[in-house]
């Protein structure tokens, strides 16, 4: 009995909820320390530089450089099966200097190269979660 299976969509909570809530309009936002201006990602309660607990959520251009990747040949979630093999990438954001994990779009796996300029694509899945992808600029 074949059945179509979609990708699992998590229900974020805590600081993850805040991250996804701010991205639901299609624009990544990152928390920036109100005291020293350092960006955080993944979000955290205290600034890693000055320990302040106050931050603003700041919209990002979504632009960065490919920092690393891995190619997935097997899946844990059957919803990703149609995309195998696919790359999960880590992109260092140009302005914020934080690293973000996402899926790869618009580039053959053989053409992956550290330092490629990338831009985020945010794809809402429901009201509380987004899938983050990156494609070459
Ligand atoms: Zn700080």
Query: Could you estimate the helical fraction of the residues in percent?
Result: under 10%
Largest sheet: 5 strands, mixed, barrel
Any ligands, ions or cofactors bound here, and which?
Answer: zinc ion
- The total beta strand count reads 7
For the terminal residues, how far apart are their CA atoms? 42 Å
Number of helices: 1
Mean pLDDT: 95
Count of distinct structural domains: 1
Principal-axes shape call: globular
User: Low-confidence spans: pLDDT under 50, at least 5 residues?
Assistant: none
Strand content: 35-45%
Give me the secondary-structure category: mainly beta
Overview of the molecule:
With 137 residues, the protein is mainly beta. The chain has one helix and seven strands. It has one domain. Strands 3-4-5-7-6 form a five-stranded mixed β-barrel. Strands 1-2 form a two-stranded antiparallel ribbon. Strand 6 and strand 7 form a beta hairpin. The protein starts with 13 loop residues before the first helix and ends with a strand. The model has no long low-confidence stretch (mean pLDDT 95). Bound molecules: zinc ion. Zinc ion binds next to loops.
Features:
single chain; 137 residues; mainly beta; five-stranded mixed beta barrel; globular; binds zinc ion
Could you provide a short overview of the structure?
The chain has 137 residues and is mostly beta strands.
Spell out the blueprint of helices and strands.
Elements: H1 14-23, E1 29-33, E2 55-59, E3 63-72, E4 86-93, E5 99-104, E6 117-124, E7 130-136
């Amino acid at each position: 009995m074949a059945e179509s299976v979609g990708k699992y969509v998590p229900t974020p909570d805590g600081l993850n909820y805040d991250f996804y809530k701010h991205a639901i309009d299609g624009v990544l936002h990152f928390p920036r320390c109100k005291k020293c201006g350092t960006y955080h990602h993944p979000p955290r309660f205290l600034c890693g530089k000055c320990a302040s607990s106050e931050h603003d959520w700041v919209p990002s251009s979504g632009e960065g450089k490919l920092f690393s990747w891995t190619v997935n040949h097997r899946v844990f979630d059957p919803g990703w099966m149609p995309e195998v093999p696919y790359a999960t990438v880590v992109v260092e954001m140009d302005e914020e200097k934080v690293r973000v994990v996402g899926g790869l779009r618009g580039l053959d796996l053989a053409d992956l190269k550290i330092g490629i300029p990338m831009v985020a694509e945010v794809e809402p899945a429901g009201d509380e979660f987004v899938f983050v992808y990156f494609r070459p600029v």
